[in-house]
Amino acid sequence: MKRSGKVAYQPRPEHHFTFGLWTVGNPGRDPFGEPVRPALSPVAIVRKLAELGAYGVNLHDNDLVPAGSTAAERDRIVREFQQVLAATGMKVPMATTNLFSDPAFRDGAFTSRDARVRAYALQKTLAAIDLGVELGATTYVCWGGRRFALEAKPNEPRGDIFLPTTGHMLAFIYTLDHPEMVGVNPEVAHERMAGLDFSHAVAQALEAGKLFHIDLNGQQVGRFDQDLRFGSDDPKGAFFLVKLLEDAKWPGMRHFDSHAYRTEDEAGVWDFAAGSMRTYLILKEKVERFNADPVIQQLLAEVDGGKSARVSFGELRNMNFDLAALRTRGYAYERLDQLTMELLLGVR
Ligand code: GCO
Ligand code: MN
Ligand code: MN
Fold first, then answer.
1. Can you give the pTM of this predicted structure?
2. How many Cβ atoms from other residues are within 10 Å of residue 303's Cβ?
3. Which of 122, 287, 305, 346 is 20 to 30 A distant from 79 in Cα terms?
């Protein structure tokens, strides 16, 4: 069987897998329980992810430089971090700002009612962009640089977040003074929380040329923010997403914005990180099989009966349709879906 690499499903930097310092570094706190794992240092995270085959790490300002650090402390931390990046070859493709932990942001950051909080959020963001540039980042994610990727989320931590979906963000971008600088960073969990189909949001962003970044994870509809391991709760949805990204040859970062289960110790965190990348590569191979499967491709070709009937707008008014045939034809989607499922379940 053809595998995507020399060793089966072995992640390599060319696959562009990235993790947030806040994702593998998440100590497992939840609204009801204290942290269950010791904090991992950013330097240790970079070393371990490099060993697992990742391309890089992304960070919020305070994931690297703790809030309240002096300028000298900041510079020392950044220097040490740059050393480990250089030593491992790991990159920082994306930077972002923590605009949620500080109690000052409890009425929002850019959208706070208090103008002083909005100004502080802007100042903090400018500093975070400078930090990102210093570390070589080319995308800045704004959840709530040089390229700005807006990340939509419908709720949590606030009840109703403005611009709650990727579609809202896309519409908003064209109202900006510099829409060419701004794209989106859609997240699986966020569109699913809104009950939407994630692949549709990503496809629309791709078509608009606005897919600057992506946050991969898993989420069940109707639940709190779960940040599950990519593909673990909805393998079929994950398959169609990987298919979309790979078929489009999208060159961007496959960033995992998810957390290990709260039950895990440090070894479990690295199982989570390795598993995220492995699942992506397995699904990528399934995409290759789907695209090469003669029966599936035949069904896809047959379903598209309208292609040969394509006519100019002028001809359309006088065209005769065989409505009896159109009304009675089947689409064979059940067969197609079953074949897809069998491929995913490993019997095809
Ligand atoms: C969340 C978001 C964050 C953002 C991150 C980058 O639900 O908390 O997904 O993880 O992705 O803050 O801006
Ligand atoms: Mn999220
Ligand atoms: Mn995210």
1. 0.93
2. 15
3. 122
